[in-house]
Amino acid sequence: MSELVNNSDHLSLGGHSPTASVLTVSNTTEPENPEAALIHFKMLEALRTENIENIQELWNTWPKNNSGGYTTPLHLSVLSSDLQVNKAVLSLPDLDINQQDSLGNTALHQASKAGRLAIVKLLLEQPNINDFLDNKAGRNVVDVAKSSDIVQLIHDDRKQFIVDRTVFLEAHLSQPTQQNLSQIVQFFTTHPRHSLLDVNHRHPLTGYTALHLATLLDDSDQVSKLLSVGANAFSRDKKSKTPIDLSKSDKVKTMLKNSNANLTINEPGQPPRMEGVLKKWTNIAGGNKNRWFVLENGVLSYYKSREDTANACRGSINVINAHLKIDPNDPCKFDVIGRDSTRFHLRANTLSEAKQWIMGITNAKSQQNSTLRKDHIGTVNLDKNPLSNDSQNYMNSPNLDRLFNLSNNGKTSPPNTDRERASSVHSEESDIPNRDTIDMNEHSTTVQFDILEKLLLSLKSTLEKDPLDSNEVERLLTAITQSRQTLSTSHQKIVEMYQQRESYWQKKFQKEADHNELWSESLRTLAMENQSILDALEKSKTNSKLDKSIKSNENGDTTLNSIAEVPEEPVGPSFDDDDNDIFYDAEDDSEFFNAEDEQEIIQEEPEQTVDEAEQVEKIEKPASKALNTVSAIKTSLAKSYQGYPAEGKFRVQLKYFKDGAKPPSISLWAILKNSIGKDLTKITLPVFFNEPSSMLQRMAEDMEYSRLLDIASRQVSSPERTMWVLAFAMSNYSSTAGRIAKPFNPLLGETFEYCRPDLGYRYVSEQVSHHPPISACYCESPNYVLATEVNVKSAFWGKSFELMPQGVCHVFLKVHADRKDGAEIPIEHISWKKVTTAVTNLIVGNPTIEHYGEMIVTNHNTGDVCRLNFKSNGWLSSDRNVLDGEVVSAQTGKAEWILSGHWDKSLIAKRAGVKEASQNLDAHSDATSHKLSEFLKDPTSSDSVILWKRSPFPEKPLPFKLTPFAITLNDMTDGLEPLLAPTDCRLRPDQRAMEEIRFDDASEEKNRLEEKQRAVRKAKEAELQRALERAPTSEHSAIKARFAHKPRWFKRTLEPTTKEDWWEFNGEYWLERERVAQEKANGNNEATWKDCADIF
After folding, report:
1. What does DSSP assign to residue 845?
2. How many CB atoms lie within 10 A of CB 197?
């Protein structure tokens, strides 16, 4: 025994208990008082044998101020006893249910950590339980929870507590009596779970808070207590009165006025939540108006009134990226300026209220959205809504993210992941042996080891102090012997339980293995049958073709007529040696960054060779694999070209504007001065400010330099392919230079199609949403597929307005380089987002267009990235419209090309690593021109190249500063009108009248179309309302979905690569066009498009 005692220093739980690494129950660094160790041992035995009498007797002798691992019998029972024994322990007199042990754990910590669901539920039912205490490691009962079931239980209990206490609070707020006030104050100052409720909770009818009640009764003591726990002196009731307004006592008024103006938060790191009335600048006519503001989760939003909070907010700013500007002349005024230049001009009613908002926004800005330890929220919440927000704030607690998504880091995930996974399986099985008892026995054994260690330490301490005290030694040795016997019995039970469980799972495993083998055999049989069917089908097709060929020869007929329906001329561009106007070599060393050349990048289309036509034909097969909406693209494209000039010879002028006709002159400022701060798409402008084109056609101007995509598809190097796509992505901005007329806003369901047989593509777009306005497009070519959307947030600021694109542009590029004949064509997915556009100098000077921001073009297949920075304009003309960027290879991680230029002139690429940038670049010179065929043969032949140059303009400017390409978009070529969809914007009467300089007609038609659209929307809303009134609430969601607008040609889905929403083309447009064209060709002039709304 002495040997045992001497070695007791080395005894540890880790060597004995299988759960020691999971459950740390005590701190045994110091020897425990022998009497206390014996009492702990006896209490454990009483709990194990369920001897309630002994439990009560031992509690009477329980050591006070116990510093050992088990501060109360409850710490022992939650680990080692069943539910009934724990109920008996909880009934012990003067038991502190929230007492913490030497590690800072309460009994609730221990039960949560051990995963004892029933015991946790029992403890939460106790009226004075405090589930917000942290242990010495800074973790609360949710942090240490073993399973998501425990977290869910705690969450549900807190939620029910909020509901019950809210009823209590509102009942007491309804009657302004001293007794009710005292009970409210007592709750917020003494109850362990008071932080779950907001001290500024308002009564739903009167709007009173507890502070309103205290000031109404002029109880200065209660006012002081409420202010100490975060009561807000600026909270307003339903009549917009603050507590100061209700008080008649000068002492109380002084206390309220001198209350802490700084925002206080219970927990560091917790973002504040504030609500209240602020005056917001609306416009010149309206001035400052009261608006209801809400600061929550780092976002400042506003509504027209408090009652309007059920609807969408009128505007919002993420304060994390915002900055504050305080008026030096009036400290009650301050501006909140967002990252996207959104600005709120605000004024508080008092200086103290302004300080609270400024401090609240500042705190929200400084907080990091990291996982918070506490579940409660900041104490200062201006005019906080009643129950709904209390519950919602608790529901949004970061700790409760674990309800559905337990993280795998060391802090928040359950310690024993294997056991957690097993637990999830156990919940589905009702016949698992010892499912409810094995964990309890493990925890009991752990506790038993801990008690044994305490006894050994006590024995060692006793022998060192008084070796002759034989009575004390005998008592300790007896206890140790009994403890060892108990451990032996427990160990045997656990071994038997695990053996039974292992046998059970072995049977389950074998059963599942047999099932898997059966399924595998079935799949093998099915695969063989499927292959047999495919072989038979292929053989049948071969025999059928042979039969037709024999019959054709017998009849002397051929299939040339059917073949002739598909033209053999190119449906895509060629790249022969004569094409020398596309690509320019920048060899000179003096002016690389200032290429001013205006020469047209593409002057003519050379004829395509037979080899190239065959190559185009081979593109079609993989296209259907890349996008299932494109099938037999050559045939489809050829049929879509009907109505368009084969050589691409469109009009070059607006014939009605030849004599210098102009729209009437009108002051832009006179129209816009009352629209400051509004969404640009919601500002109604006279038709005279429009150009004769639709936003859908303006969107189609992206295709002006489509040849850049054709070039990209031929490049061998993936960084260079991505670079050419970047050139295409930025090229469309050149059409905006000096062009500020507003295109017509498309009506909901409006469409636009455009085909270029000479360039080998077809394009279609649709207005798929009205609020917000969103246009979607889809373009097909043998070399690429383009899918983009125009989803623009806009704002008007008086002297300027901004357009912030939200959608993602996608190109699916078919890579032809190094492809062997017959091989499948690889397809690369490349995407980007457009940059911000601003129109400035609306009042003074000439209005100008500016584009700024960073465009990032990503090749998702290769990882290559191109970055192009559109710089904001400076004061000097040389600093305007400047571009710079780089092309980074995913393989090397380094820049391979350096980009430079101007978005209204040209874009130049210089190979990275070249010592001196090319200067004096002259694209007019033959010496600097570089044939594309030479580049394709040897991409390393030049260190600098002109990727893109703006096409030259006619000597005489076109009306509205339209580009030659834009002129073609609204052209109604011969034979095209009968083939168009009835929703095509070429058929829009106000736009057509505008082009034909019938300005009064255009204005009347514009108003008529807008009123027609409103009438249709109102009729649909009324029909929806009637349907909702007739149907039960459970069917309302389905009814609303049925009445929601569904675009005809596009569908909103999730793009799988970027994980961004996009509008996917359904492939039906060109099929429907072909059907209508065929019917009209057969003499049915009344043929109409199916499911196309009458919008004009």
Report:
1. S
2. 21
pLDDT tens for 356-382 read 788 788 777 766 443 333 333 333 333
Give the whole-number percent of the chain exceeding pLDDT 70.
64
Query: Does 1035 reside within a domain?
Result: no
Look at the chain and report how many structural domains it folds into.
Answer: 5
Residues 843 and 779 in one domain: yes
**Are the C-beta atoms of 910 and 900 separated by less than 8 Å?**
yes
Residue 301, exposed/middle/buried by CB under 10 A (0-12, 13-18, 19+)? Answer: middle
* Element holding 541 (H helix, E strand): helix 470-555
- Cα 155 to the center of its chain, rounded Å: 25
Residues 133 and 247 in one domain: no
DSSP-based three-state secondary structure for 963: coil
Q: Is 770 found in the same domain as 675?
A: yes
In the block, tokens 């001897």 appear at 51
Enter the tokens of residue 672: 């816009």
Report the SS3 class of residue 406: coil
What DSSP element (H or E) covers 726? helix 718-731
- The DSSP string of 495-514 is HHHHHHHHHHHHHHHHHHHH
Residue 902 maps to a domain:
no
Cα–Cα nearest to 867, from 858, 880, 875, 876? 858
529: number of Cβ within 10 Å: 10
Taking only the tens place, the pLDDT of each residue in 636-692 is: 788 889 999 988 888 888 877 765 566 655 555 555 555 555 555 555 667 777 889
Residues 713 and 840 grouped into a single domain:
yes
DSSP 695: H
Same-domain pairing of 282 and 256? no
Nearest-5° Cα angle at 213, 290 to 256: 65
| The pair of three-digit structure tokens given for residue 223, joined into one six-digit string | 């006012």
First to last CA, the chain: 102
The answer to whether the CB of 943 falls within 8 A of the CB of 674 is no
* Last residue within a domain, chosen from 260, 288, 305: 260
Return phi, psi of residue 867, to 5°: -120, 130
- What is the domain range of residue 953? 651-815+829-851+949-1003+1040-1095
Between CA 124 and CA 942 the distance in angstroms is 76
| Whether residues 63 and 109 fall in one domain | yes
Q: How many helices (H) and strands (E) does the chain have?
A: 31, 26
SS3 state of residue 194: helix
Residue that is written with structure tokens 């209490």 in the block:
43
Q: Which amino acid is at 7?
A: N
Is residue 333 located within the same domain as residue 211? no
Rounded CA gap, 37 and 452, in Å? 9
Strand ranges for 510-597 from DSSP E: 584-585
